[in-house]
Amino acid sequence: MTLRQAQGPIEDAGLHGDVSVDELRLSDELTGTGAAAASADIAEYALWLGDDALILSQQLGEWIARAPELEEDVALGNIALDLLGHARSFLHFAGSYDGRSEDDLAYLRDEPEFRSAWIVEQPNGDFAQTIARQFVASTYMFELYAALRASTDRTFAAIAEKSLKEVDYHRDHAVQWVLRLAGGTDESRRRIIRALGDVWPYVDELFRDEPLIERLGDVAVRPSTLRPGFDAAVDTVFADAELTTPAVAASSAGGRRGHHATPLGHLLAEMQVLARRHPGASW
């Protein structure tokens, strides 16, 4: 199955799951219309962003038919499709460097070749765990795409412009659930507090300035500059929910350098098995 097939018909996607950029098909945006192929460093940065979206999409897709209510089956499925669209855009751009397709990059890379942050690799756990992870990821992505619109690379800027509208919805969805769980029963509050404590060690990795950022300059967004906006948004939600920021040590996460923990290997084994067993198959 290709990423295009997994995403479903773009023409019927509406607000969610559409990977067109400025009303152009992605293939037209990146080939034959003046957009330059990615350099090695730009391709690496595109993998950062594309892998985050791809892995988080795969995680959320596992909730379809398992969410606590039918409405959440639909909501999480739509968010997963949005993220798959973001992943397709970034991976397509990354592949323009060396000729690999978005499917090659999604299904035929080994674990050390992925550049996803550890927070998106954390298992779904219970519903509160997924919401805590989604709250962090969507709040970060909103700050990231808002800043990436000013990239000097026009492809990054165009993808960010479109993706921001969708991530704004993702963030609102996660915020509403944090508030609902924190203000619900004693059990729901206990679970969201525990879940936030479990995911918080992986927050710092999102804001580390790796050497790649120095080389890219104004093409990329310096992660450390996003932290104030992220913290302000989190503080507002925590104040409304009467929660406190978890006091936990940062993990040694090194996903941007290809160093991953066990969960990613299990996820990739499931995600890639069909493409590796039947190379080139489609239906």
What can you see in these coordinates?
InterPro entries: Aromatic_CoA_ox/epox, Ferritin-like, Ferritin-like_SF, PaaA_PaaC, PaaC. One of its GO terms (biological process) is phenylacetate catabolic process. This is 1,2-phenylacetyl-CoA epoxidase, subunit C. The chain has 283 residues and is mainly α. It has one domain: Ferritin (Up-down Bundle). About 7% of the residues have low confidence.
Key words describing this protein structure:
283 residues; mainly alpha; Ferritin; 12 helices; 60% helix; 1,2-phenylacetyl-CoA epoxidase, subunit C; PaaA_PaaC; Ferritin-like; PaaC
Structure at a glance:
The chain is mostly helical and 283 residues long. The chain is built from twelve helices and no strands.
Which SSEs are present, and which pair or pack?
Elements: H1 3-7, H2 26-30, H3 40-61, H4 70-95, H5 102-107, H6 118-121, H7 127-148, H8 154-182, H9 186-199, H10 211-216, H11 227-241, H12 262-277
InterPro entries: Aromatic_CoA_ox/epox (IPR052703), Ferritin-like (IPR012347), Ferritin-like_SF (IPR009078), PaaA_PaaC (IPR007814), PaaC (IPR011882)
Protein name: 1,2-phenylacetyl-CoA epoxidase, subunit C
Pfam families: PaaA_PaaC
What is the CATH domain class?
Mainly Alpha
Number of domains: 1
Shape: globular
Helical region count?
A: 12
Largest sheet: none
Q: Rounded to an integer, what's the Rg over CA atoms?
A: 18 Å
Binned, the helix content reads: 55-70%
Q: How far apart lie the N and C ends?
A: 7 Å
Structural class: mainly alpha
Order of helices and strands: HHHHHHHHHHHH
CATH fold annotation: Ferritin
Number of strands: 0
Spell out the CATH superfamily: Ferritin, core subunit, four-helix bundle
Organism: Microbacterium foliorum
GO cellular component, one term: cytosol
Protein name: 1,2-phenylacetyl-CoA epoxidase, subunit C
InterPro entries: Aromatic_CoA_ox/epox, Ferritin-like, Ferritin-like_SF, PaaA_PaaC, PaaC
